[in-house]
Fold:
Amino acid sequence: MEWITHRAAARTALLSLLCGILTLSSCKHRSRTASPEAGTPIAGTPSDGLASKTVEMLNARRQTGQFLTAKASVRLQAGQKDVSVSGTLRMKRDDVIQLSLAFLGLMEVGRMEITPDYFPLVDRMNHRYVRVGYADVPFFQKAGIDFHTFQSLFWGELFLPGDGGKAPQGKDFKHQVSGDTLSLTVETHARTVLHFMASMSRALLLGTSVDSRTGSAVPLVSWDYSDYKPFAGKQFPSGMRMRLSSGTMKAQVTLGLSNLKDNSDWGTRTEVNTRKYRQVPVESILGMLKGLSQ
Structure:
């Protein structure tokens, strides 16, 4: 019974992350020329210089190394379920993000991979997989969402959709200061706003969220950062929490990272034996997660 529980937990945690990625695909960075008020700071306030300086410091703290690997503890909370599994996070800058989950830390039961061209989800136990290309999701091309968006989320960076991973500037955002917290916002879609929260004194990103413009108090997707640890001469968030809220579908995945290294000795692409694994549509995966959250 414990084995079945861990297997289901690992699979469901990966499904939640995949759903969060698909929800983020509905974001669209509005052109600054088409909507000048969306990407400019609040002019004439004493905090203008402080906000720009904080954004400059956040960008200076971006990781510049090519590789990051870490052991991961993964906790899933969806509906009445609250389960934890172990895994491994591997990332190569501008190339791939891999998250594999294992039963008792020994046998891999699932893997999610994000590359510049596609992202597969592999269910080892049920011998099935989902493979989604960016061209398969209309929102991706319309919104300028690409690999760099997801890379910035996992590396804990400021970003603007469709800007190819370039570090944004203070002038790209509206901002608001409350105590030590700097809030940065930019319109991304007619119905959503991209929102960043940062500590000014520490120059660290606290969270990223996609918020509804309809006035809902609950973000559609939020990605919080905590427990920063030294890595490659800078600071990296060893705690990440992704929350998804879409209609009746609500889930939360928490990553606790340890043993951070710049190890490059690992395969950057997951090979799937199509004779042993069957491909399933992403809609079936989304339907499974909706059922878990009820």
Residues 124 and 142 are 33 Å apart (CA to CA).
